[in-house]
User: Which sequence fits this backbone?
């Protein structure tokens, strides 16, 4: 594992948007590692010029350490892990590689889930739902069948999947849509993640209020 060669800059700022699941990943790691930093929200519909000048992707999260501007949620999460005490990554290189691969795989499911939540028509909803379920079925096969992805210990990959499984619980409990009915390992993982203090803090009442406001603004069929 990389050595911690520099202290985490105390003036660092995590540039965020309230309901972005990729931001959620990084914020969970911040809480798990007890890192102190400022969270700065921006409007993704009206991104500030200073942000677009510094971010080549124009996406959140981004981490401004004062000296470096770091983007992409998985990269930010690994950086936060490396510059703080302990590690949320497996010890073996092969295990870390597997975790990184499945973390990358989650991205398309997060996008499909967001599009599903925002769908204005049943046809669009079903298209994105099918994409999401196919992805979840593959993750079910790779899961450890223990509380977390690798086993008994919470890891970076668990932070990466937490926003996805917070929203599967929301869809089931609020809208009666059970995406995990045939996926018992993911159902147990969903429960373990939603019980985690860091996950609950990131996905509090205000999070769901903001999510449903965005769904309303986009005429989501789920709120019709």
Assistant:
């Amino acid at each position: 594992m990389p050595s911690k060669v520099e202290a985490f800059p105390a003036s660092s700022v995590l540039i965020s948007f309230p309901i972005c699941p990729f931001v959620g990943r990084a914020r969970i790691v911040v809480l798990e590692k007890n890192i102190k930093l400022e969270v700065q929200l921006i409007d993704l519909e009206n991104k500030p010029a200073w942000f677009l000048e510094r971010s080549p992707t124009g996406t959140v999260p981004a981490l401004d350490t004062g000296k470096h501007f770091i983007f992409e949620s998985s990269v930010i999460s690994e950086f936060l892990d490396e510059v703080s005490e302990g590690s949320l990554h497996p010890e073996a290189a092969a295990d870390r590689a597997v975790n990184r691969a499945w973390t990358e795989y989650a991205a398309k499911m997060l996008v499909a889930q967001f599009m599903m939540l925002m769908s204005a028509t049943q046809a669009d909803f079903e298209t994105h739902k099918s994409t999401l379920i196919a992805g979840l079925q593959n993750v079910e096969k790779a899961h450890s069948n223990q509380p977390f992805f690798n086993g008994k210990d919470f890891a970076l990959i668990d932070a990466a999947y937490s926003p996805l499984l917070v929203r599967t619980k929301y869809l089931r409990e609020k809208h009666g849509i059970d995406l995990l009915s045939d996926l018992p390992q993911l159902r147990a993982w969903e429960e373990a993640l939603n019980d985690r203090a860091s996950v609950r803090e990131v996905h509090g009442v205000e999070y769901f209020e903001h999510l449903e406001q965005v769904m309303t603004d986009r005429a989501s069929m789920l709120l019709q």
